[in-house]
Amino acid sequence: MLPPGPAADSQRTVSHGYNSFGNPNQTTVAGSTAFVDYNSNGTPNFSWQPEQCCPDSSPYSSADTDKATAYSYFSNGPGAGQVPTVRPPVDAQMKPESYTYDLYGRALTFTDGRGVVTTYSYD
Prior knowledge:
By secondary structure, the chain is mainly β. Helix content is 7%, strand content 35%.
């Protein structure tokens, strides 16, 4: 027998959508949907919720991109393809998250939106 728990949690419906490359591009939980748009190389470009950003599900006007979470990537060097910055929506109460990498592309530091730094080391 399962322990008692809130009935609403056991009845929650979650659905996922995928693009033609098999990347998850839509998740709906309890009637709220979040979307992810990908760059041509398969890396996330933007993520957003229509009620906070872009009612037509595409954050491509300059006003809309400020309301979506944006992902940037190093184009060359030791961190090529790695994410240096994740920028939350401009009006969010958080600051961007940032990463640094060593010469092998391994994470050295992660700074969260509150400015808390996590440092990684390797043997």
